[in-house]
Specification:
Shape: elongated
Radius of gyration: 39 Å
Strand order of the largest sheet: 14-16-19-22-20-17
Helix content: 10-25%
């Protein structure tokens, strides 16, 4: 026995000596990094500290004694639920003990992480997680499809009508455990639990406050067929934001995941990574709803794969509600083709959904939700064509004396305007505007009403250079009818793109650039649909084009005036149907043409070139104030002849060429 003690003491001495040597080496190493001016003083201080370690009265104490003493000196990093009397035998009511452990951690009496041991912990009261506290279990067993009470798992088994777990404070959460709506008769609960359905599994709720940075990790929420498995909810001016939900499995519930905010609250910018929603009894897989802001909630790699759902796997409603779902998997093998797997209410916009879509289809206004990019045999998303709708985006054809820029309107402008050669983009001129301290804003806008019924969004802007802060901003009429504007130019003297993207008013579309200071502009762009701006890319009418193939003009038929028209000499050709008109004389080619589309509503846009083709002889086109012909000579058709004319946008046409 004496030898045994001697050996133990010797071993302890060797270990302590090793520690001392290590400390000494660390001290010498640290000294090497000390500046030369105070090197001696620092080395002396480290030497004294080393001597104090070596001279301690417990230097030769057994390591077990040292470990116990150190454990008493340092605060514990964990709170152990077993210290508060949890049993975990699926018989005893462990709710009060678990709550006591959580409350202790929440009041800084013990460590902020509560360790839940292996077991099934019955509770008849909701478990409330205080702010800053984590409830950490031992996993949820071997199966992701059912709770098998094996492999050392920790299961909170709730028997009640409320939510099983409530998270009402920031920086708190759950990990590595299961939450179960307990359906069995056991122990103190015989005859009760099978008939009780909980309102939900885990509830993250903010009431009158903001709850941020909550988390769930490796959590299995199971069998909440009377309510929601997981809910993020904000009420009474509350907000839930920046939650992080990872690898959470939701199985068998009325609603898998619900996001909701009342009209005074928000549920925004929460992130869900991985995980799955599956099983039976579902009305909704994911249900996001307002009327408050419930948007920018992101889902990455989520699988929603139950065979069917009574309403939809994903249901989004509310004008300020949307979801961002990337690389997800949606499957519903028992849904028939008449029932969509995803329903986006017409009031919702800006949703993003991509990934695998199996079975049925998506019901949504794709023009309000161009970010829905799923492609399947049943449905597809829509992307708008990125075509610049501004005519003459190259600022060509400036008429300085008359202050006219083709395709553009300058309203309330007394400014001096000069056109320069291209700078940022080839073939796109720069206009320089000298504001002249006008005293108010003037507007640069298209001289046409721009509108595409098929699109609800518009994106537009212009490159601007200015040394005057706030010299220009983009503005438009929003879908509500109010005027909204973009951020203005910073005034840094550099090129900045000034633009915006929003829902526009289809009943009274209105887009313009508001100018209140000296500024240079180039490459304006307007595209319908929620697509990035495309400055420098424009239609042929904007900046010209070079073609390597066949350029095909539209063709139409020109008929004589009817008997009901005011004059047999005033002809009206169909607009927007072509540039070449086959003149059909209805068997009587001996006719006269004195005017073409002279009324305001019938006029062609400025610069339009048309060709009249006559298959028969005898038709006379009269030289007049409305049709100005070369050398003031009438055109008289012969067989297979033609006359080409151009308009300035007025009632008058001008001859380009003739073939007779």
């Amino acid at each position: 026995e004496g030898k045994s003690i001697s050996k133990t003491t010797a071993m302890n001495m060797n270990i302590i000596t090793s520690i001392a040597v290590t400390v000494a080496i660390a001290a010498i190493s640290a000294a090497l990094y000390i500046s030369h001016s105070d090197q001696s003083e620092k080395i002396a201080t480290l030497s004294r500290q080393l001597s104090e370690i070596l001279e301690r009265d417990d230097f030769d104490a057994p390591l077990s004694t040292l470990s116990a003493r150190r454990a008493q000196e340092l605060p514990s990093a964990f709170t152990y639920a077993s210290d508060f009397g949890v049993v975990g035998d699926s018989m005893a009511n462990d709710g009060p003990a678990i709550q006591a452990a959580l409350d202790s951690a929440g009041m800084d009496e013990t460590g902020g992480t509560v360790i839940l041991p292996q077991g099934v912990f019955i509770t008849t009261q909701p478990i409330i997680i205080p702010a800053g506290v984590t409830l950490h279990g031992q996993g949820y067993g071997s199966s992701p499809l059912a709770i098998k009470f094996d492999s050392g798992g920790s299961t909170i088994a709730y028997c009640g009508t409320d939510h099983a777990v409530k998270i009402n404070g920031s920086s708190s959460g759950l990990r590595d455990l299961a939450v179960y709506d307990w359906p069995y008769n056991h122990g103190d609960f015989d005859g009760g639990c099978p008939d009780i359905k909980a309102a939900g599994g885990v509830l993250i709720q903010a009431e009158g406050t903001t709850v941020e940075s909550t988390f769930l990790q490796n959590v299995f929420i199971y069998f909440f067929v009377g309510g929601q498995a997981l809910t993020l909810s904000a009420i009474n001016q509350g907000g839930v934001a920046y939650s992080n939900i990872q690898n959470v499995r939701l199985r068998h519930a009325m609603t898998g995941l619900k996001l909701e905010a009342d009209e005074t609250s928000f549920v925004n910018t929460n992130t869900f990574v991985g995980g799955a929603i599956s099983g039976g009894d579902f009305h909704y897989g994911l249900h996001a709803t307002g009327p408050g802001d419930c948007n920018d909630n992101k889902f990455y790699g989520l699988g929603i794969g139950m065979y069917d759902s009574e309403v939809a796997h994903v249901y989004v409603t509310g004008s300020t509600t949307n979801v961002k779902m990337e690389n997800i998997r949606l499957e519903a093998k028992d849904k028939d083709m008449s029932r969509p797997i995803v329903i986006i209410d017409d009031s919702s916009y800006g949703n993003v959904i991509n990934g695998i879509l199996g079975h049925t289809h998506i019901k949504a206004d794709m023009n309000r939700n161009p970010g829905i990019d799923t492609m399947s045999q049943k449905s597809v998303g829509l992307d708008p064509a990125p075509l610049n709708q501004f005519w003459n985006a190259a600022f060509k054809g400036w008429d300085g004396p008359n202050r006219i820029m083709p395709g553009w309107s300058l309203q309330n402008s007394q400014a001096d305007i000069v056109v320069f050669e291209p700078d940022l983009y080839p073939d796109h001129n720069v206009i320089s505007i000298d504001y002249l301290n006008y005293g108010g804003a003037f507007k640069l806008m298209s001289d046409q009403t721009l509108k595409v019924e098929g699109h609800d969004f518009v994106t537009f802007g212009v490159y601007a250079k200015s040394s005057v802060p706030g010299s220009i901003s983009a503005a438009m009429r929003y879908t509500s009818g109010s005027i909204i504007s973009s951020a203005p130019h910073s005034g840094n003297g550099e090129w900045e793109f000034i633009g915006m993207s929003a829902l526009y008013s289809k009943t009274a579309p209105y887009f313009y650039f508001s100018i209140t200071g000296d500024v240079q502009l180039t490459a304006p762009t307007l595209t319908f649909g929620q697509t990035p701006a495309t400055p420098g890319a424009s239609l042929m009418s904007s900046s010209g084009a070079r073609m390597s193939g066949t350029f095909t003009l539209g063709g139409a038929i020109g008929y004589p005036p009817s008997a009901e028209d005011s004059s047999p000499y005033f002809w009206v050709l169909p607009k927007n149907e072509g540039n070449v008109f086959m003149m059909d004389m209805l068997g009587d080619p001996v006719r006269h043409i004195h005017r073409l589309n002279h009324s305001g509503a019938d006029r062609f846009p400025k610069g339009t070139v048309i060709t009249l083709v006559f298959e028969e002889s005898g038709t006379r086109v009269k030289h007049s104030a409305y049709i100005k012909l070369k050398n003031n000579q009438d055109f008289v058709s012969v067989t297979q002849s033609s006359l080409t004319l151009i308009t300035k946008g007025s009632a008058t046409w001008y001859e380009v060429s003739r073939n007779n």
